[in-house]
Amino acid sequence: MHSFNGKEYPCCASLTMGVIGGKWKTVILFHLIDGPLRYNELRKMMPTVTERTLSLQLKTLEEDGIVERKVFTSKPPLKVEYSLSDFGKTLIPLIQSIADWGNAAAQKRI
Question: Residue 49: which domain range?
Fold first, then answer.
């Protein structure tokens, strides 16, 4: 058994999928590879995700220490940016491999 953030997983693969699995988490991480993005920038890159789902997924990724949320309050309007944490950056090779596989599969056109 493996544990992470108070949750138990039967194997290391299920732990990984528990953290980055689902329809949107990997997509969010893929978009954050190139640097910080504001919430609305992420929404524009992911037009089919609902606002509620995006907010919940970002919150979960933040709670797991994968994404950092930085709030700028120096001048109005309030600005919030999301970026990969140092721990989240360790996922870049994995996310890039998933994206590369998706590109190859799309070109194969089965």
Answer: 25-108
Q: Is residue 93 part of a domain?
A: yes
Largest CA distance in the chain: 52
The whole-model pTM stands at: 0.88
Q: What is the domain count for the chain?
A: 1
What is the three-class DSSP state of 82?
A: strand
Structure tokens given for 89: 């950056």
Report whether 15 contacts 4 (CB < 8 A): yes
Q: What is the dihedral of CA 102, 91, 88, 49, to 10 degrees?
A: 10
pLDDT digits (tens, 9 = 90+) for 20-70: 888 899 999 999 999 999 999 999 999 999 999 999 999 999 999 999 999
Q: What is the CATH number of the domain that holds 35?
A: 1.10.10.10
Task: Specify which residues 2 forms β-bridges with.
Answer: 9
